[in-house]
Amino acid sequence: MGFFDMKAICAVCEKEVGLNRHKIADKNCICPSCFKDAGFNIGMAHKPIKQMTVEDIHFAIEAKNTNNDELSSFNPSKKIGTFVEFDDTQKKWLILTGFLGKRDKSKVFNYSDIVDFELLEDGESVTQGGLGRALVGGALFGGAGAVVGGVTGKRKNKAICNSLKIKVTLRDVNNPLIYITFLNTATKKDGFMYKTNYQLAHECLSAFQIICNEQEVLINNNGSNKIAGSAADEIKKFKNLLDEGILTQDEFDAKKKELLSL
Ligand SMILES: [Zn+2]
User: Fold this and answer.
1) Residues 52 and 116 in one domain
2) Based on the structure, what is the number of domains in the chain?
3) Are residues 238 and 210 part of one domain?
4) Does the first or last residue of the chain, that is N or C, have fewer Cβ atoms within 10 Å of its Cβ?
5) Angle at 111 between CA 109 and CA 117, to 5 degrees
6) Does any domain span residue 89?
């Protein structure tokens, strides 16, 4: 490794950067300051930074700035434990990421971002719901301990739950999935902690389902026959065209905006 490896140019701000740089795709790198500006530590399931292009980084920085504005104007009308907050006036929601349910660096989502969601207990699907579908699973049959077929039967036999989370599929090509963690350590299923968090998780599922039902009415009332899933599929097609260099970033952004009716 020669002396010249010590220094490089940040592909975003074009300032000189030392060995504390972060590698991204196409042999580019970014400086710690741009890395921070892109907000890469807010618990999102974004793709690995090493696979991100310069455009991806620019997009992340822009998204974080927008998010900061949305966070400061967020005014919760409903709060579920220390996990999720809803702003029913602005039709927005967020996952509490900070210590003891602080808003901290939470990412703000729109109600219309939700495509579907499912409760996973030790990785097994317990309850599912979403746009254009009904809530199906334990919640319908009386919540904790209800037996609906084999999966729930097997689940009931275990005395310990190691993980309880809701997986949300979002209408966002950059962050299509997000998890809300209700339990992530071994917890006795007959104890207070499990029962409380299981209840909160189901409260959250119900809220999501109400939101999805409302969104569906809105979509139908707009006279639009495209449902969320097809908009996401369309965007993916255009993203491929962008990746292949057929569309420019601006053309892609315009198309995406149009499809999401922003
Ligand atoms: Zn930089």
Assistant:
1) no
2) 3
3) no
4) N
5) 90
6) no
Cα–ligand 1 centroid distance for 23 (angstroms): 12
- Stronger pLDDT, 138 or 92, i.e. the higher one: 92
Token digits for 84? Answer: 């999720």
Q: Identify the residue with better confidence: 132 or 230.
A: 132
Task: Tell me, in angstroms, the distance from the centre of ligand 1 to residue 21's CA.
Answer: 9
Domain shared by 196 and 239, yes or no? no
The partner residues of 188 in beta bridges, in order of sequence, read 160
Q: Same structural domain for residues 39 and 55?
A: yes
Confidence category of residue 148, pLDDT binned at 50, 70, 90: very low
Q: What's the rounded Cα separation, in Å, for the pair 222 and 228?
A: 13
pLDDT for the residue numbered 46: 60
Q: How far is the CA of 68 from the centre of ligand 1 (A)?
A: 19
CA of 30 to the centre of ligand 1 (A): 5
Spacing, Cα 250 to ligand 1 middle (Å)? 22
Ligand 1 centroid–CA 11 distance in Å is 7
Specify if 151 maps to a domain: yes
Nearest to 135 by CA among 206, 42, 214: 206
